[in-house]
Every structure is written in structure tokens, then in C-alpha cells.
Amino acid sequence: MSATSLRGYVYYLSFNDDYSRKTWIIYFLKSKDEVFKKFKEFKAIIENLSERKIKILRSDTGGEFTSNEFKYFCKEVEIKREFSTPYNPQQNGVAERKNNTIMEVVKAMIHDQDLPMHLWEEATRTVVYVQNRISHRALANKTQEEMFTGVKPEVSHLKIFGSLVYIHVPKDKRSKLDP
After folding, report:
1. Contact 139, 147 (CB under 8 A)
2. 13: which strand partners?
3. Out of 21, 52, 136, 163, which residue is the most buried by the measure of CB atoms under 10 Å away?
4. Is 162 exposed, middle or buried (0-12, 13-18, 19+ CB in 10 A)?
5. pLDDT at 1
6. What is the rounded CA–CA span in Å between residue 12 and residue 32?
7. DSSP state of 89
8. Model pLDDT for residues 103-161, shown as the tens digit of each residue
9. Within a 13 Å sphere around the CA of 151, how many CA atoms are in the beta-carbon half?
10. Could you tell me where the DSSP H helices lie in the chain?
């Protein structure tokens, strides 16, 4: 990311399911050395929620995925690792296309609402949330959420990103001159 987010993040890490195409969790990172810790956190959450084990992890050959610590952990918990050939992102097509789409939509949302680029983290969270809840031709017009849970998600609560909002501050939390 070319801009630092409000919370100081520079990168994001997403975990995508090949079957449902759902982006499970998106983590925001200040440095790439956080990837291993976030993968372990993701593994615990997913295996607890789904009661299934992660069997294969496909990634590029970036140093954050090829460390000895990562290698030994995956071996210990019996996760097969698959790496795309360097400079050949097509081998990890679903994830690469997903990341490109996320960034294209983030930029469009920020520019459409004429917002500062440091809001990319909020826009990215929104994109992933919405994409998991819209139908996809490759999934026979089901949503990614529906492919995983079997339940069509509710979307009536969605609003346009960047819309003006008003937040009520309780009387005891404001002074006479506060708006």
C-alpha cells in the first residue's frame, strides 16, 4: 500500500478459501514479519469455527511464507504447502485475482467519495465484507458466504461507503457547547 492507514498499517494479508472463494479474514499489518503470527491466529479461528483442519496452504514464495519457523510449524500440524513459481502469479489465480479486485474496488470507492488514501484500511474491510455477500457467477450465482454456511446472507443493512453519518453522543459525555 502506498499510504499508511489511520492505525499505521501498510499491508494487508487475506486468506481465501478455494472452494467457496470466501475471503475468510483480512489482517492488516505494519510489517511483513507479522504474517506467521497472523496465520497461526487464522488457523485457530477457522479450525474452531468450521471444526475442520486446514490441509493445504497455497502462497507465493515471499520470505514471510518461507521462513524456517513457518515451514516447521506447517510440517508439525500437517499442512501441505504449495508455492507459486516466482514471477508467475497465475499459479495462484483465485487469490491473485481476488487481491487485484479488492484493490481496484478500494481505489474506486476512495476516489468516488473523494476521501483521503489513508482510509484504505476501512475501504478494504468494506470491500471484503460486501464481496463475501454478493453472488458470483463461478458459484452458480450463490454468494461466498452462502457457499460456506448454506444460508443466504442479509444485505439490507448495507450503506454507500463514505456516506455522511451522525453519531449520537450521550448528554453526559458532552458539554453544553459540543455539537
Report:
1. yes
2. 27
3. 21
4. middle
5. 53
6. 9
7. G
8. 999 999 999 999 999 999 999 999 999 998 988 888 888 888 888 888 889 889 988 88
9. 4
10. 35-50, 63-66, 68-76, 93-112, 120-131, 144-149
